[in-house]
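Let us practice reading a record.
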Amino acid sequence: MARSIDTQQSAVRGFVPAQNDEERFLMRHVEDLARAAFGRGIARYSAFLSDREQQLAQAALNRAGAPEESCRFEGGWPDAERRVLCLEPEDCYPASPVCCVRLRCRGLAGAQLPVHKDYLGSLMGLELRREALGDIVLPADQPGTAYVFALEPAAQLICRELYQAGHTELTTTLLEPDDVPQFPAAQREIRSATVSSLRLDAVLAAMLRCSRGMAAELVTAGRVEINHLPAESVHAPVYEDDVFTVRGKGRFQLTALPGKSKKDRLIIEYFQY
């Protein structure tokens, strides 16, 4: 795509404070964990947190003055999206609660294999809370195998109770930390488009390849989130690194704003998860 050079630094969305009682409770909980960990010198851990919850947790740690070198987020593998907050004071005895369960299908050759939503549905059927579960990884080089990251009690329950995903029987194995494989980094296709403005409806229409009117209808119907928060206006400005979740359509990330085209339209680069 032809483009002109634009040296202006792209704007980045600032931190969005807690928006409701649930988010405010999470921040207070993280502050309580920090006081317990660093006041007593004992390691403390949260449940699994989403991207948005991790941002709130980091803000709570900053507010509590927690030492940065003793705080980390751990999801069980390098590219994890859902992560546990680990507060590990100096000279404590850390014991990460993140476990990994390998699920292997026992279906007949040629049978349709479960997909991510099948595994998640079966796990939720065990009446597990979502915060007890981390990522579900389906390596492309291991068809019929999935890896579930979970808190230890949930991992034990999965090994005892989970026998099926979709219509396929499973075997489960709780892995030792050293036996968790090194998963290849996700290969995502970076796409580009041009937009007239960095308004939500314009950018969403480009990503979904639909009209701005249809994109606006998705927003007004409450089907769009930006960075895990409901989008309130079709006119909302968007920023580099924003993540868009469109119910029924997928999830997208705006990765770069390289500049303008020769026709003076703004160039966006993005990928779909």
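A brief commentary: Confidence is low (pLDDT under 50) at residues 1-8.
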